[in-house]
Automatic annotation (TrEMBL):
This is Pentatricopeptide repeat-containing protein. It comes from Rhamnella rubrinervis. It comes from the Eukaryota. PPR repeats lie at residues 19-53, 120-154, 223-257, 324-358, 394-424, 425-459. InterPro entries: E_motif, PPR_At4g14850-like_plant, PPR_rpt, TPR-like_helical_dom_sf. GO terms for biological process: RNA modification. Pfam families: E_motif, PPR, PPR_2. One of its GO terms (molecular function) is RNA binding. PROSITE patterns: PPR. Keywords: Repeat.
Length: 654
DNA sequence: TTAGGGTTAG
């Protein structure tokens, strides 16, 4: 039955005896207002009225079908088109190609495209965008060449499609090549093309270039999408303050932010120190009417839990009338990061009871929670859960599980999983190398690194960091220096501060303090407290008071509130018999109001966390623990390990 | 043309 009443508003203002043109305008109006079902009803009514659809009608109806994404409906529509005398018209066939592309039916789209007797720029674009969105860069480039061979002039849509394909392939070089092609052909004047470039460069990590393009768009031409693309770029790299500053400029310029702006901004707000600003954005979202959008609520839950305000996150979650898998994951992730495994598991069960199944991201949040809490048993349970739910075939899940096993000290489980993985990525190898380094399996770490290279995998900056850490902990100076040189010479990876820290630590531990200091002085970035601390520790081990004083001056300047630094320097003076130096440090600590908070270790036994500090006698089984420790030290000495560090090596201070 | 929950290091 045709509900004629529901479609009359679109027709009544034109005529009671509509022509094909009037039918087309009415259908177009319904589609543009988002009323796709009404558009289809109008189309049906048009045919029942005896009006024959023309080459303009079909593309509009195809657009309605696209929005409804119902393959059955599309098939019915296709049969209508075939029967029509306009079925072979280029507009109509292009609309069909586009419809199949939007439904993800690329084979059907391409079959139709290949049989088209005439193709215009829109037909080529529809197919090209289809391949681009599926990440087939090779096919996109091939189609682009064929298009130019067929003497069809590419336009801004072609350009956007090409950029999307390069983004899928994460090919920054190709993005730049297409950018220069776009400039040569004058397509950069189109704001939507410029917006795509901003998005492309920021996704590839080149935020400076994104800024250059953004600045190049005239103020009165910039759209909300231009601003959103820039803000999303900062959000991708968790640069909240930059994102916020652009948001403020956007407001100053009189533009009204939309849901996308709020979502990006919220997703970049991930630190406790920004919680207040996050709350302000939340209220902006309410003013703008965005919080009725479920995605915004999900992101708010995530924002509050990442900023450490799990209570607000839970309030929002509990107040939701409808929850998706993303909502459950956001709150589970919050509790899991907090280390609250009881609540995490409770929510996982509640999720199942509510009829939602955990997906890949939910599983990753759960595994990462176990890793942080050191909950090996629960981690194993999640492993079997993933296995029985068909999620254990996923490389990312396996990588997270390997990391969990390694960080919980269960290297055999990590190995078992690593070796049965049918396919491994650089992340898998890096996780395993890093796990070996963490657990003192230095030879295995280096063997894995070489096997990885032999298999033709390209290590990244994190792989090198893991390898350098293995070398540092094992004291393998030559090997470490070899890998450090390999980074730049073979793999063209510029070492970061962390890599320099590792090498400085490696040199310092071996007593090459002058060489370590020289490295710190010549490196291209400003040394941080970490690298100076490594040098200070080396000065302490090798009793180098002179360089120790120089290093500590830098450290005091950078952060005068770090207690360890005073302790280390006092130890250097004490070991040199310079008691006036020790006294001076004590005075500095008092003057700067520094208090030494002891470091803590946490271990879970039978699901219960136990917290320890240095020389902690407060544990209920403290006496037993220390007698066991003394026993172990005695046994080690008997085995020939004579140079054990003293348990109370720290100089009494504070 | 822009957007939500997440794996390797730190």
């Amino acid at each position: 039955m045709v509900k004629s009443l529901s479609v009359t508003p679109y027709l009544s203002r034109y005529s009671s005896f509509p022509t094909v043109g009037i039918w087309n305008s009415s259908i177009r109006e319904a589609v543009n207002q988002g009323h796709s079902r009404k558009a289809l009803l109008l189309f049906r009514q048009m045919k029942q009225n005896g009006s024959e659809p023309d080459n303009f009608t079909f593309p509009i109806v195809a657009k309605a079908c696209c929005k409804l994404s119902d393959p059955k409906l599309s098939l019915v529509f296709h049969t209508h088109v075939v029967k029509s005398p306009f079925g072979s018209h280029v507009f109509v066939q292009t609309a069909l190609v586009d419809m199949y592309v939007k439904h993800g039916q690329l084979v059907d789209a391409y079959n139709l495209f290949e049989r088209m007797p005439v193709r215009d720029v829109a037909s080529w674009n529809a197919m090209l965008v289809g391949f681009a969105q599926s990440g087939c860069l090779g096919r996109v480039l091939c189609l682009f060449h064929q298009m130019r061979f067929a003497a069809v002039q590419p336009d801004s849509v072609t350009c956007v499609g090409l950029i999307q394909a390069c983004l899928h392939a994460k090919n920054l070089k190709m993005v730049k090549a297409i950018h220069s092609y776009g400039i040569r052909t004058g397509m950069d004047a189109d704001v939507s093309v410029a917006n795509t470039w901003i998005g492309a460069y920021s996704k590839c990590g080149d935020l400076d270039l994104a800024k250059v393009i953004f600045d190049g768009i005239d103020l009165d031409v910039r759209t909300v999408v231009s601003w959103n693309s820039m803000i999303a770029g900062f959000a991708n790299f968790e640069k909240f303050l930059d994102a916020l500053s652009y948001y403020k400029s956007m407001l100053h310029g009189g533009l009204r932010p939309d849901t996308s702006t709020i979502l990006s901004l919220l997703s970049s707000c991930v630190q406790y120190e920004f919680l207040f600003q996050g709350t302000l954005i939340h209220s902006h979202g309410i003013q703008l009417g965005c919080v009725s959008d479920i995605s915004v609520v999900n992101t708010l839950i995530s924002m509050y839990s990442k900023c450490g305000d799990i209570v607000s996150a839970r309030l929002l979650f509990d107040g939701m009338s409808h929850r998706t898998c993303v909502s459950w994951t956001a709150i589970i992730s919050g509790y899991s990061k907090k280390g609250d495994l009881d609540e995490t598991l409770g929510l996982l069960h509640a999720m199942g009871a509510a009829g939602e199944k955990p997906d890949l991201v939910t599983m990753l949040s759960l595994i990462s929670g176990c890793t942080q809490a050191g909950a090996l048993e629960l981690g194993k349970w999640i492993n079997s859960y993933a296995l029985s739910n068909g999620l254990r075939d996923n490389i990312i899940i396996c990588n997270a599980l390997i990391d969990m096993y390694a960080k919980c000290g269960s290297m055999n489980d990590a190995r078992d999983l690593f070796y049965i993985m049918p396919e491994k990525t650089v992340v898998s190898w890096t996780t395993m190398i890093s796990g070996c380094a963490l657990n003192g399996e230095f030879k295995e770490a280096l063997d894995l690194f070489h096997t990885m290279l032999e298999r033709g995998l390209k290590p990244n900056h994190i792989t090198f960091l893991a390898v350098l850490q293995a070398c540092t902990h094992a004291g393998l100076l030559e090997k470490g220096m070899e890998c450090f040189a390999m980074m730049t010479n073979v793999y063209n990876i510029a070492p970061g501060l962390d890599h320099y820290s590792c090498v400085a630590d490696l040199l310092g531990r071996r007593g090459m303090i002058i060489e370590a200091l020289k490295l710190v002085q010549i490196m291209p970035m400003k040394p941080d407290t970490g690298i100076w601390s490594a040098l200070l520790a080396a000065c302490k081990i090798h009793r180098n008071r002179e360089i120790g004083e120089y290093v500590s001056r830098h450290l005091f300047e950078l952060d005068p509130q770090v207690a360890v630094l005073y302790v280390e320097m006092a130890n250097i003076y004490a070991s040199d018999g310079k008691w006036d130096g020790v006294a001076a440090i004590r005075r500095m600590m008092k003057c700067n109001k520094v208090k030494k908070l002891p470091g803590q270790s946490v271990i879970q036994v039978n699901g219960k966390p136990h917290v320890f500090t240095v020389e902690d006698r407060g544990h209920p089984e403290g006496l037993l623990l220390y007698s066991m420790l003394d026993n172990l030290i005695l046994q080690l000495k008997e085995e020939g390990y004579l140079h054990l560090p003293e348990r109370t090596s720290e100089h009494e201070l504070g």
